[in-house]
Amino acid sequence: MLSISNRGHLMPPSPIRKLVPFAEAAKKRGIKVHHLNIGQPDIETPPQILAAVRNSNFKILEYSHSAGNESYRKKLADYYSRVGIYVTAEQIIVTTGGSEAIIFAMMACMDAGDEVIIPEPFYANYNAFAIEAGVIVRPITASIENGFALPPMVELEKAITSRTKAILICSPNNPTGYLYSKEEMELLKQIIVKHKLFLFSDEAYREFCYEGTHTSAMHLKGADDNVIIMDTISKRYSACGGRIGALVTKNQEVLNAVLKFAQARLSPPGFAQILAEAAVDLPANYFDATKAEYKKRRDILIQRLNAIPGVFCPNPGGAFYAVAKLPVPDAELFCQWLLESFNYNGQTLMLAPASGFYSTLGLGKQEVRLAYVLNTDDINAAMDCLENALETYNQ
Amino acid sequence: MLSISNRGHLMPPSPIRKLVPFAEAAKKRGIKVHHLNIGQPDIETPPQILAAVRNSNFKILEYSHSAGNESYRKKLADYYSRVGIYVTAEQIIVTTGGSEAIIFAMMACMDAGDEVIIPEPFYANYNAFAIEAGVIVRPITASIENGFALPPMVELEKAITSRTKAILICSPNNPTGYLYSKEEMELLKQIIVKHKLFLFSDEAYREFCYEGTHTSAMHLKGADDNVIIMDTISKRYSACGGRIGALVTKNQEVLNAVLKFAQARLSPPGFAQILAEAAVDLPANYFDATKAEYKKRRDILIQRLNAIPGVFCPNPGGAFYAVAKLPVPDAELFCQWLLESFNYNGQTLMLAPASGFYSTLGLGKQEVRLAYVLNTDDINAAMDCLENALETYNQ
């Protein structure tokens, strides 16, 4: 029968995409739209790593090794050692973006019907990858009142069934910006060791920590076989379009299986591997300026948000996102209204309704995600809009 | 339980990979190995398309549209119109290599347990993608005696069950080089229309036809909703490492579903989209030289093969592969012996045992795949080796 698959039906559309036509229509009406809805950094890609690609002089754009160029994997092992992650080049498989590392981890470790526990709200595409892999997501809810901290151990253990194979975390978190403490990571370790579970650790935002330091899942002692890191250069070097990520684990059986998935798709992108290799040689202080810039933006954003009557936004420890609770009954309708019916001095803002980041139906209805990927002037202008909009909307 | 998935176990390792350590050992012993085993063309990537990337001047390597840059998709529609395929930019989704087009087609059109019919021998990674998607491959066998022509309609119809959703073809074919005639394509159309099946058409080698012309699945009239083309720039422009392909269909429901899979992985590689866009502007005669070169190689290879006593190789109409039957009981053992125990004037050759390209166990045991991606001198030297080797092996 000529019809698409059930999973084709089930695949969630991007939670932001629905609002795009409204943003486009607003722009056509001459309104300036401040995009706080997407995680595309405005920070420039370091010119020296773009130059590495532009100055390359190979003559044939050949397949690379399926696990990625060996020269790049060796350098990447150096990079990891600088953040206290001690792995060899053989324990790294270069992937096509962090996205592919996630799908490889699910495919290699889980069968259809197996369950993965994920604290919600979470990166919406985890749902999409789970549908591709036939894997069932069991959410445990982190609450905005607790600043999106790890839910209590007892909640976590209640969610474990005979089909549970893994816990998936992202720290610092997209969408909340929450940074797991060393203590929370140790609690997670106890659970994965006790219940023999994999820990899939999405560390895309490792470099962006503003309160305290980053605890990698690879810093946990005695859980080498449990931990799989899913990484990407996208945010680290403002190189989202390159599509270079990595899956890192010390579990040899997992490495062997993932390599077969990697071989099937032949190789990760060639040009961007050159860029990524050059990135490892960036000066040690490269992140300082970027981090300082993001921290400044975060401070303004959070201060401005919490100064608006009825708005609550916990202070995120890392990444460049925050989830705020708004004094509106339905944030999605409000976001649409912002684009369709509102402007303040010819400006408005686009936000991501947070319900798309929850797996439990009905949660996050009053919440929005804000990405602080704009300069501070634009953030201030966007907050002026939001302040004024909420006043008008609630009149 | 901390163990990999069943599909992780089931994923087939690359059929060529097993022999790699033997090739490496031979090289360490100082023996020159002629690589006829892999489809990595030695033809240079057109310098002007590499220059398009090297002369680019953007400052942020941003995510592209999930379906690929609009400017590229528009150009690609032009390219397709030049080969008689009339589609709009909206009917094209740019993928990360042809590999991703295959997995997207399977994921969007088929559920776990659904069946796809594939004439064997076939590209080994179809098996891998089927395992990822939980899809069952039903092979129908094309025989070397018939030059690997499409098996009779009656065989095809016998393979159709209530779970059959698609037929997957590749023309010109990897591994056989067989080019389906217009008549064979029309027969396929009758079947897909009659049984309401998708036709997944892998047209990676469209430009490489030496006998007759290419009939695209999109040339078939009255099957617009059935046909999904899976394409790639890898072979067309010797740009395998770029990882740019495309899924093309006029079926709007399929396009909507595939777009959701594309959105989940964010975007195809950025640099290589620039290269691919520039490739559409290559002079019309670009393929002439490449095609003439491959045809010359094919002619020498096939003539030399069939001149060896006991060897039979049908003349392939396209691509740059051939499958030959050798006078040996087990081609895999022979291939290993070539690397491990043989040399002729300090040279030997590496071939791909064809059993890895069959889904039916036990088939293709005497066959090997040869990729004519070497210059004619090297092909002649490799054939000298093969001739001598078979004489020695069968003494």
Please describe the structure with a list of short key phrases separated by commas or semicolons.
globular; Aspartate Aminotransferase, domain 1; 395 residues; homodimer; 12 strands; 3-stranded antiparallel beta sheet; alpha/beta; Aspartate Aminotransferase, domain 2; 2 domains; 7-stranded mixed beta sheet; 13 helices
Your description of this structure?
The structure is a homodimer of 395-residue chains. With 395 residues, chain A is α/β, with parallel strands linked by helices. Chain A contains 13 helices and twelve strands. In chain A, the strands form three sheets. The first copy, chain A, has a seven-stranded mixed sheet, sandwiched between helices. Chain A has a three-stranded antiparallel sheet with strand order 9-12-11. The longest helix of chain A is centred in the C-terminal third of the chain and has 22 residues, at 286-307. Chain A is globular and about 60 Å long. Chain A starts with 5 loop residues before the first helix and ends with a helix.
What is the structure about, briefly put?
The structure is a homodimer of 395-residue chains. The first copy, chain A, is α/β, with parallel strands linked by helices and 395 residues long.
SSE string of chain A, helices as H and strands as E: HHEHHEHEHEHEHEEEHHHEHEEEH
Shape of chain A: globular
Number of domains of chain A: 2
Greatest contact between two chains: A-B, 80 and 78 residues
Strand content of chain A: 5-15%
- Through-space gap between termini of chain A: 54 Å
Q: Going across the major beta sheet of chain A, what is the strand order?
A: 2-8-7-6-5-3-4
Tell me the quaternary state. homodimer
**Mind telling me the CATH class of the largest domain in chain A?**
Alpha Beta
Q: What structural category arises from helix and sheet content of chain A?
A: alpha/beta
Helical proportion of chain A, percent range: 25-40%
Q: Would you report the number of β strands of chain A?
A: 12
